[in-house]
Amino acid sequence: MKVMVTGGDGYIGSHCVLALLDSGYDVLTFDNHSTGHIQTSENISGISTEGRFLGTFSGDLLNVDDINRALKENDMDAVIHFAAFSQVAESMKRPDIYYRNNVCGTMNLLDAMKDHGVDKIVFSSTAATYGEPEYTPIDEDHPQRPINPYGRTKLTVEGMMDDYDLAYGIRSVRLRYFNVAGADSGCRVGEWHDPETHLIPNILKSTFGDGKEFELFGDDYDTRDGTCIRDYVNVEDLADAHILALEYLVNGGGTDFFNLGTNEGSSVKEVFAECEKVTGKKIPLKIKGRRPGDPAVLVADNRKAKEILHWNPRRTLSDSIRTAYMWEKKMRGN
Questions:
Q1: Residues near 333 by Cβ (< 8 Å), separated by ≥ 6?
Q2: Domain ranges of the chain
Q3: Which residues, other chains included, contact 219 with Cβ-Cβ below 8 Å and sequence gap of 6+?
Q4: Which of 5, 88, 297, 299 lies 20 to 30 Å from 128 when distance is taken between CA atoms?
Q5: Contact predicate 51/24, CB 8 Å
Q6: Which whole-number Å values give the CA distances from 138 to 154, 198, 246, 270, in the listed order?
Q7: PANTHER family from the entry (predicted)?
Q8: Gap between the Cα atoms of 27 and 78, Å rounded
Q9: Which of 178, 168, 65 is nearest to 118 (CA)?
């Protein structure tokens, strides 16, 4: 079976590409490399896997001709869609590029799928569609009231996918991620952002003695230790969920949506302490005031994904930190 992975040279996309290849799928990545790295595909092309890596199609979802050529020339059976801008702060400053890229780009993709008879898509959505939590753990029935343009673009796409299913029979699974962490356990791919905004890699970067100090924003929240609590799901577990979602669609499953998290939360201080434990290093820390818009607790209720997709996250927070640290050392040549 041939699968096109948009944004396949990015962080989560590249891990999904490897998981698909390891599971025997033939995979084409589609990426404009605005945030993903072409070196990722070059690295993957040299890895021995069960499936065939069909290479990277350098194209843009805002160019319909690119999508049509990729689908036609490679005779794709399904799509897994990661390509999107995803920085909340940037979306507040530049909503125009977020709506254009995330919404218009996805509409172009769905139109091309319709024209080429590709009727299955797994979509990288986000817990940001829920907005400020009214209760935790957050289940799929929680109201969706996003509080930033990034979350609103993802919610718009979810609604679009419902409409394309009803009108054209394109079935979709939308996977709403909580906080993603870790790297490939074989150190084949990992997280590679510039600038880096995620908690764990930023803590780990502070262990290398280059003067970087980790900044903790807010220690006066109404939580067990005063710092924000988040649900950290391992990126390899996340990749497994995409394969299960694809198999669900292949086996005739209908359009649906699922939370991906661990059903447990870790505070920033707990993550910090675990990073020190894994690395064996004392990490420089500076406590600053709260950032606006940071909820105290964000934890997923993942029962629906367990029951319907038969997905069970297996890796621990320590596993995620260990693999992220291995990748960071590899990137630095250590």
A1: none
A2: 2-182+232-260, 199-230+263-331
A3: 225, 226, 227, 269, 287
A4: 5
A5: yes
A6: 17, 21, 24, 21
A7: UDP-ARABINOSE 4-EPIMERASE 1, UDP-GLUCOSE 4-EPIMERASE
A8: 10
A9: 168
Distance CA 162, CA 283 (A): 47
Contacts of 260 (CB under 8 A, 6+ apart): 175, 176, 177, 178, 233, 238, 241, 300, 302, 305, 311
Which residue among the candidates 25, 130, 150, 164 is catalytic per the annotation? 150
Distance from C-alpha of 182 to C-alpha of 230, rounded to nearest angstrom: 15
CATH number of 2-182+232-260: 3.40.50.720
Name residue 329's amino acid.
K
Which has the closest alpha carbon to 62: 5, 29, 11, 103? 103
Tens digits of pLDDT across the chain (334 residues): 999 999 998 899 999 999 999 999 999 999 998 876 666 676 787 777 788 999 999 999 999 999 999 999 999 999 999 999 988 889 999 999 999 999 999 999 999 999 999 999 999 999 999 998 999 999 999 999 998 999 999 999 999 999 999 999 999 999 999 999 999 999 888 877 666 677 898 888 888 866 677 889 999 999 999 999 999 999 999 999 999 999 999 999 999 999 999 999 999 999 999 999 999 998 888 899 987 778 889 999 999 999 999 999 999 999 999 999 998 888 877 7
Chain-centre distance of CA 128, in angstroms? Answer: 12
Amino acid code (one letter) for 318: S
99 catalytic residue (yes or no): no
Q: Which of 29, 37, 36 is nearest to 5 (CA)?
A: 29
The token pair at 314 is 């297996």
Residue whose C-alpha is closest to residue 295's, from 178, 173, 161: 178
Please return the burial class of 159, using the count of CB atoms within 10 Å of its CB with bins 0-12, 13-18 and 19+: exposed
